[in-house]
Amino acid sequence: MGAPHDVVIIGSGFGGIGMAIRLVQEGFGDVVVLEKAADLGGTWRDNTYPGAACDVPSHLYSFSFERKTDWSRRFPPQEEILDYLRDCAREYGIMPLIRFGTEVTEARFDEGAGLWHVATSRGDTLSARVLVSACGQLNRPVLPDIPGRETFTGASFHSARWDHGAALDGRRVAIVGTGASAIQIIPEIAARARHLTVFQRSAPYVIDKPDRIYRGWEKALLRSVPGLHELSRARIYALYESRALGFIKYPKLMDLLSRRFRANMRDQIADPALRATLTPDYPMGCKRILISSDYYPALAEPHVDLVADPIERVTPSGVRTADGRDHEADVIVYATGFAASGFVAPMKITGRDGRELNEEWREGALAHLGITVSGFPNLFLLYGPYTNLGHNSIIYMLESQIRYVLGCLHAMRDAGLDWIEVRPDAQDAFGREMRERLRSTVWDSGCTSWYMTEDGKVVNNWPGFTFAYRRATRRPDPRHFRARRTANP
What we know:
Elements lengths: L4 E6 L3 H12 L5 E4 L8 H4 L31 H14 L6 E2 L4 E7 L4 E6 L4 E9 L21 E4 L13 E5 L3 H11 L4 E5 L6 E2 L8 H9 L3 H15 L1 H5 L5 H15 L3 H6 L12 E2 L3 H5 L4 E4 L3 E5 L2 E4 L4 E3 L2 E4 L13 E3 L6 H4 L18 E3 L12 H22 L3 E4 L1 H15 L27 H7 L8 E4 L5
Parallel strand pairs: 1-2, 1-6, 2-3, 4-17, 6-18, 7-16, 8-9, 8-16, 9-12, 10-11
Antiparallel strand pairs: 4-5, 5-6, 13-14, 14-15, 19-20
């Protein structure tokens, strides 16, 4: 097993890479990053589908300590984001710390030794004083439970596992789903396919995407004029942060975005029947608001069909809907989202007294500030429950969490502690506060979404401003924790 490491991080997306960089900068030198894939990048490695891009402006979608001034466009494409993460890992010396092709299968806390024992798919076990899960919320693709799915004779795959060898040009393509990935994929495939059939279960709200290429002189100014990039970043942050008012406090403010949605559709969809099918039947913001300027024009193309009838089954030659129609297809793409509320699944994480984390979370995940869990000492989550956003950059939230974790580790080191654990009363108080605050948000207004558990409990989203979360995580409160010195219990 070898000597214990200071910190083991699970995952090498934005959370894992950012955490590793800051740990090394703060003097925690013995850090290991375990990554199940052959490359870093998390969701930006996995989602290589045509049209993949971010829906947060590029100037805000970067670490505060490594700001990029030469983004190619206002909303960054997938490849550019992935390259940015690779550049960060190389520049800050993180690449040698990453063990690729190493999936964590189980982690168990040894209370006597004050260590986490981490088992991997390679058959080895590592020990660590601290375990950080940076798996994210959107890392496990979900394929729909549709009868006959395995009988289809053509190519079929999930959007997050894109088959780049599948022939699409001049073919009949079916896309199941109309969520955030689908609205980026559909215009790209509509331009290549002979016929495209889109199966919609629930219509999304789609507003226009103010995207454009950055000119050379703009990038030169951002690079050379002190403070200009910071000003652009601050302006975008303030604009997006203001939208939180509509999500969390004054849902009527969503009417402003709703008017933008309706104007966008009216300008781009001439057919009243198609407009009716594309109009959601739930309050705006209850599900993720999507941005695209080419989604509706693609659906209006004569060789594109939007089908809102429920899918009955997949056949060897296509998709059959509940009205008895068979929709022939050569390729089926499942843009059907992710298992977002499991957080650490399918890993088995066992804390004190044999507590298993997935079992503890059977009725909904809960972690104090989305970061620490009672009964699981020295375990820290990045992008855990109640930390997702509907209005701003998740990297801002991740940096808040990273700072909080560093605060915990410095406090442990300064006090000579072997482990700390959040008190159950502090965690429960945080959970009650979240549930109370979420009741007045648009996310709890009656629709179903990936923000919820199967029984309708919202566990993913932060019901507040991001600056309020940063203030709440400014430093760990010693009153929220209990601690132990293993050598002198």
